[in-house]
Amino acid sequence: MQIIRKVVPNNFNLFLCGDKHTGSILSHDDGWVQMVHMINSEVDGIKPRNNFVVDHGDMIEAIDVQDKRFDFTVTNIRQSQIFNQAQEAVLERQEIRKNLITILKGNHEHKVIRFGDMTAFVCERLNIQYGTFSAVIEYVDRNDNLLFKHYAHHGFGSIRSIAHPAKRRVTNKKISLMQKFDAKFGDCILNSMGHTHQLIICDPEPLLYLKTIAGTIDQGYTKPSKTTGYIEPNHRWVVNTGSFLKTFGLGFDGYGERAGYDPIELGFILVKVRDRKINKVEKVLFS
Ligand SMILES: [Fe+2]
């Protein structure tokens, strides 16, 4: 757990990404290049210096030969050793070093913790604050006034539904994601996690309510306006940040294929903060 205070302008973009899994030939290197290029470009009127990034971990595959998931045919030979993967993770982030707010440790890095903390190593090399497995990020202005808080976790458990029809499956998955953050840091209006490799956005849900005004009955909608104290779960943004790891490849089989994982969208989440507030949260998919 870490608390990170980040000074930001009134308008900025937040790239919430993770699960690059460098070391596997199923890792979408071209997708990573696309994202790095986007971070170094003007996005929706925001200059590159105000494109901030939170990396949710599983930067590296970190599967050693004793792991039952190990498979030579899926291992990127150039990065066959776990330490090579960590070195590659440093290189992959050099061009976005100044944009990165933090990198979280994922379960893949944690599985090889007996060899040392690979995430701490990468953060140290890049001079980035190490987020550990989860971090509260407090976005503040130059005068130390809070804009909002963000709880970022590598992720845990699974998000599944076998309900019919598809609309119910999608909704069930969103509810499952929201529940994971329900009783965590209740003053964070933005909550994010990686790990499941799914791209999911739960926007705040305005609720209709009745009120009386000057002897008449009127109506209103609740809306996310609070930035301090407890924030009602319906008023929070909760996202699952996707991944760069393909499930299928021709001529071999990865552990995702063997485990029967369903297809997933490859990409990340883009949060647009305008006039100090979260204005829009959207998926970015790789072409
Ligand atoms: Fe992962």
Care to describe what's here?
The protein is an alpha/beta fold. It has a single domain (2-285), classed as Purple Acid Phosphatase, chain A, domain 2. It contains 6 helices and 14 strands. The strands form 3 sheets. It has a 6-stranded mixed β-sheet with strand order 1-6-7-8-12-9, with helices on one face. Strand 10 (208-213) and strand 11 (216-221) form a beta hairpin. The mean pLDDT is 96. It binds fe (ii) ion. Fe (ii) ion is lined by residues 19, 58, 106, 108, 195, 197, 243.
Level-1 CATH class name: Alpha Beta
pLDDT averaged residue by residue: 96
Largest sheet geometry: 6 strands, mixed
- The radius of gyration is 20 Å
Order of helices and strands: EEHEHEHHEEEHEEEEEHEE
Keywords:
alpha/beta; binds fe (ii) ion; six-stranded mixed β-sheet; Purple Acid Phosphatase, chain A, domain 2
Briefly, what is this?
The chain is an alpha/beta fold. It is 20% helix and 28% strand.
Itemize the secondary structure elements and their pairings.
Layout: E1 2-7, E2 12-17, H1 29-39, E3 51-55, H2 82-93, E4 100-103, H3 107-111, H4 118-126, E5 129-130, E6 134-140, E7 146-153, H5 166-182, E8 190-193, E9 199-202, E10 208-213, E11 216-221, E12 237-241, H6 255-258, E13 267-274, E14 277-285
Parallel strand pairs: 1-6, 2-3, 3-4, 4-5, 7-8, 8-12
Antiparallel strand pairs: 2-13, 6-7, 9-12, 10-11, 13-14
Helix pairs in contact: 2-4
The structure holds fe (ii) ion (FE2).
